[in-house]
Design goal:
This protein is an alpha/beta fold. 45% of the residues lie in helices and 15% in strands. The chain contains 17 helices and 11 strands. It has a 6-stranded mixed β-sheet with strand order 2-1-3-4-5-6, with helices on both faces. Helix 2 packs across helix 13. The N and C termini lie far apart (54 Å). The relative contact order is 0.13.
């Protein structure tokens, strides 16, 4: 038995024997909790090792992950080759040829031209390459929609479960950046995602979003009319490491899984209380707490106690359910998962049971993904992010260990999140003499007059504040920023405003 299994079974709610096997408990006659989940999952199942996993989608997602990360990971080897050429004849031409061949874009001619005077500025070149790769990655994402899923189908299912909005706050740690599209296999456009260090989301921001959602329901009937008894689902995803729990857990909670779970639960309850106190006791908020083992992408969903409150010591572990149903037929495996959710859920509504079952089964494909392509555990169980993203946006980042997030309007309000990110990259990059690449991004709605100008202003103010807060790093060339905006209403590409690598974005970069 693996260390993860030992850890999880010691405190988890243990599933009963599988349906159809000796010793199995009878199936509850309450069919809606099982049939809805089965419809939502069985329709997309392709042949895989597990009857409920989607092997075809796993192949597509792995290809996308490998191609994207390979583009970032080619930067250092290429720059090492270029560095070795800087005193050779015809250096500039040879450097540009290498960059085009291995990275797919040209390097700034001014940086290469100055190399003969002193030394090639590798820090500026490294930051430039990261930013250029990020631009190409974004353009590719918004042009080709590799991760697109049927948002309408999921929204219909969500409403059938009794919810009109799924609002998820994972930790800002890059090991959770793929939680929507990979871990939970949800359509990213149909889910609100905002990441915070330790998953300690901003309550006021969430209240603002709740108010906006309810107003839209009242004024436009989107996604449901205000008289429909649907609810707003707020979810926190905290994380831990089963392989190295004392060092590779959540940095914001001192790698203490108990503290991470407790912090997430307290923040959820505070948000629920704030809405109820502000908008009366009938305000519709439901809560869900999910733990993620970042070593293998297995989730656990915490279940309610006999009083209906989320219980930190009772949860269903998707890895246990995966193993228990591995040899079953698809329908039998689906029924078994639904039965475990019913028994563990107590007085939960049928809709909440359906949603929990849906997420657990969705995670089966990701469990199989990690087992098939990474032998059951990622090699980079710690941090391996390529850049920091700060501001509002980053819809395109749906890959593990690609980006550390710091969502914010101002540097001051996100100082704690930013400091965690800088600490992480001080070990990843600065300790090796490489700069921290930081993308400052503000999305805007183009149909709103003056929105683009305000987004540009936000970029410039945040960029200046970052350089002031981390002045030592910036002055030594160990912090470089890229400023971008995007009209999310039009669904277009990002627009580069400026970069610290150059005084202004040169024409040769485009």
């Amino acid at each position: 038995m693996s260390s993860r299994r030992k850890q999880s079974r010691s405190i988890a709610w243990v599933p009963t024997a599988p349906v159809g096997r000796p010793g199995a408990r009878g199936v509850d006659a309450d069919k809606p909790a099982t049939q809805g989940t089965a419809r939502a999952n069985l329709a997309s199942v392709q042949s895989g090792r597990h009857p409920l996993s989607n092997a075809t989608e796993n192949t597509r997602l792995f290809d996308y992950e490998q191609r994207t990360k390979a583009a970032f990971d080619a930067i250092v080897p290429t720059l090492k080759q270029i560095s070795g050429l800087q005193h050779e004849a015809d250096f500039e031409r040879r450097a540009q040829a290498l960059a085009q061949e291995q990275l797919g874009f040209a390097l700034p001619a001014t940086i290469l031209a100055d190399a003969w005077v002193t030394q090639l500025d590798m820090r500026r070149l490294f930051a430039w390459c990261v930013f250029q790769t990020y631009q190409r990655f974004c353009d590719d994402f918004f042009t080709n929609s590799f991760l697109s899923r049927l948002e309408t189908e999921f929204q219909t299912f969500l409403i059938e479960c009794g919810f009109h909005t799924l609002d998820i706050s994972p930790c800002a740690d890059g090991r959770l950046a793929h939680v929507i599209s990979y871990v939970l296999r949800l359509p990213h456009k149909a889910v609100r995602r905002k990441s915070y260090a330790g998953a300690m989301f901003d309550i006021e921001d969430s209240i603002e979003k709740w108010t906006e959602t309810e107003l839209q329901r009242f004024r436009e009937g989107i996604p449901t009319t205000a008289d429909m008894p649907t609810r707003y689902m707020k979810t926190v995803v905290y994380h831990f490491s089963s392989s190295d729990p004392e060092h590779e857990g959540c940095a914001a909670h001192g790698s203490d899984a108990g503290r991470a779970a407790q912090g997430g639960l307290e923040r959820l309850k505070a948000f629920q209380t704030a809405v109820e106190n502000s908008f009366c006791c009938g305000a519709s908020i439901d809560l869900m707490l999910i733990g993620l083992d970042t070593d293998n992408d297995t989730i656990r969903i915490h279940m309610p106690d006999r009083h209906g409150e989320i219980d930190l010591k009772r949860y269903l572990d998707a890895g246990d359910l995966y193993d228990a149903t591995l040899s079953m037929q698809a329908a039998q495996a689906q029924e078994y998962v639904s039965e475990q959710v019913r028994q563990a859920g107590g007085e939960m509504s049928n809709g909440m049971q359906r949603l929990m079952g849906y997420l657990l089964v969705n995670n089966f494909s990701q469990i199989e993904y990690v087992r098939q392509y990474y032998d059951g555990r990622y090699r980079d169980i710690g941090h391996a992010e390529r850049f920091i993203g700060a501001g509002i946006g980053f819809e395109e980042v749906q890959l593990r260990n690609l980006t550390y997030f710091a969502y914010m309007q101002t540097v001051e309000e996100a100082a704690a999140d930013l400091d965690v990110g800088i600490k992480i990259f001080s070990k990843l990059n600065v300790s090796h003499g490489l700069p921290i690449p930081l993308v400052v991004r503000f999305d805007y709605h183009g149909q709103v007059p003056g929105a683009r100008e305000r987004a540009v202003g936000h970029c410039q103010r945040v960029d200046a504040a970052l350089n002031d807060r981390y002045a030592d790093l910036a002055s030594n060339g160990l912090l470089h920023t890229l400023q971008v905006v995007r009209d999310c209403h039009a669904g277009g590409r990002i627009e580069v405003i400026g970069t610290s690598v150059m005084d202004e974005v040169t024409e040769e970069a485009h």
